[in-house]
């Protein structure tokens, strides 16, 4: 397998997991003679090959990918050269990574803005990219999202369990549920109280 292929990134299209897998496959399928890029040093070639294997599974931040490669005993110089080539191929962009992370984690896990910011910091994403990724999430969005989560949770309960529910216990569980997704306690209590009141209203 050669990793000397040209940039497979389609201009202006965000690298999602599916597009990333397609782009990685395109790079791996290229013959070395088809590239106008200089060959990588042998150690960097090995590191770039390992990077492509990691990127087949999901997008990663540059910091995350660097740490994984260093953990596989690739030298820092080889990792630097490999990551430079991966960027040229369009497979490594922290701004795109942050945007995709926010969209996916918010949709599938219901994460709050604060929780998403913390997760991205843990992955070594720069503050400027984090700010851009969460810029569309304001206080009203947080309230609406938390309300949807609580309503979905309550909707799974049977009519009998709603009648027999210990409201204080239910309140604690729902507030904790939102707290695990990063929502502030004050917001969580406001949303939960409103939705529980709606449940018991005639």
Explain how this protein is built.
With 202 residues, this protein is mostly helical. It folds into 3 domains: 17-92; 96-133, no CATH class; 139-200, no CATH class. It has 11 helices and no strands. It has helices at 17-29, 42-57, 62-71, 76-88, 94-109, 113-122, 127-133, 139-155, 159-164, 167-180, 185-200. It starts with 16 loop residues before the first helix and ends with a helix. Residues 1-12 have low confidence and may be disordered.
Features:
3 domains, RecX_HTH_1st, about 70% helix, cytoplasm, mainly alpha, Regulatory_RecX, about 200 residues, WH-like_DNA-bd_sf, disordered N terminus, 11 helices
Return the average pLDDT rounded to an integer: 86
The total number of structural domains is 3
Beta-strand segment tally? 0
Structural Rg: 22 Å
β-strand percent reads: under 5%
Strand-pairing-aware structural class: mainly alpha
Give the biggest beta sheet: none
The ordered H/E elements are HHHHHHHHHHH
Report the total helices: 11
Uncertain runs with pLDDT below 50, 5 residues or more?
1-12
Shape: elongated
Through-space gap between termini: 68 Å
Organism: Dietzia natronolimnaea
Subcellular location: Cytoplasm
GO biological process, one term: regulation of DNA repair
Pfam families: RecX_HTH1, RecX_HTH2
